[in-house]
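Pipeline run #58 for the internal structure catalog. This entry was flagged by the ingest filter as a single-chain record with no existing model, so it goes straight to prediction. Upstream metadata was stripped on purpose; only the residue string is passed forward. Reviewer on rotation: M.T. Logging verbosity set to normal.
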Amino acid sequence: MENQPAQEPKKNSNVIYFLIVVIVALLGTDVYLYLKKNNSDEKIVYQNDERTRLQTELDSLEAQIEQVNTSKVRMSSELQGKNDSLRAKIKTLRSDLAKGKLTVEELEKAQEDVKQLRYFVTKYTADIEELRKENINLTTERDTLKTNLTTVSAKASDLEKQNQDLNTKVQVASALKVGEASVVGYKVKSNGKESDETKAKNINKLKINFTVASNAVATKGSHDIFIRIIDPVGNLITTNDSGTLNADGQELQYTYKTSIDYKDDGAAYVVDWLYNQPFQKGTYTVVLYADGYTMGRTGVLLK
């Protein structure tokens, strides 16, 4: 009976040890739960920050694509397809990032998708820039060709004008010109005999005599000769045989037409012109034309 008091203190000591263990266990649990919660909060914050960063990068990439589109570069069907594909990819990633909390796997996939998208946008931008440079070069070449064409056209026009001027000069130079010319009035009798006459009332024929100046560039052979006879008051005399000609750049009516065989041998030519109307007193002017130009002129005074 005397040994029982010694067991009581030992029992109390065991209870104290047990309580200490329980307290330590509780404290450990609290610390573990705190650290776990803190780590979870940090992870959520990290995921939210990363999602915001990815969304900002998507904004930047979309703006880069939009800037390319405003450059007004004519895109091929292949580049247009890339443009549409990149826009669709950005839209899909925006939709994924707009969801609620992302898992680690979803966030890592989004990061990889944005990385690939960045590569494709950079390559697409480089392709558009290359196309823009090619368009500038083509535009420059086109403008150069236009300038050259304008220059060539101007030179061609100048050459054509020079040729026309040269042709005109050749035509003028090759046209027949009168050497000497005279007109004599004649009276033709009923028996066919004729005699020169100066009185207007007795004259019924004019003899037009002329020579042609020597011309080495004139065409040898037949040449049409047009004659205009103008009375003393300035009126052109016309008959049933009259017509029109183009000479010295204008259309003229002529009195009589004939032809000569030109050989550049100094030969003299005579044109007989009968007129059934009475002649007036005064000076009659005779103008000859050949090869589209005035050949020469002469006149006669009838008393």
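catalog note: The first strand starts at residue 178 and ends at 188.
catalog note: The chain has a mean pLDDT of 79.
status: ready for reviewer M.T.
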